[in-house]
Design brief:
There is one protein chain. 48% of the residues lie in helices and 0% in strands. The chain has helices at residues 2-5, 13-23, 35-42, 51-58, 73-80. It has one domain. It has 82 residues and is mainly α. It is flat and about 35 Å long. It has five helices and no strands.
Amino acid sequence: MEQKVLSNGVEVPAQIMLRYLLQQDIVIIPKSAHTERIQENTDVFDFTLTAEEMAELKKLDTGIPMIGNAEDPERVESAAKW
């Protein structure tokens, strides 16, 4: 899947996922302490994902929250310390 979406070689996986969320009108607040990654995180407005790419990415969703999952308090605590 990743190779299909990244076939043009311009975007990095984080950019693809940020763009995916943006195209679903989900507010994102990316975080990084590295200048290069901060720049990459802002370079998501000069491309769009096709309907086919969006559908492929949607298949990756397990439906289990990674942050804020009440069933995994340790993960919530860990995320709060980022």
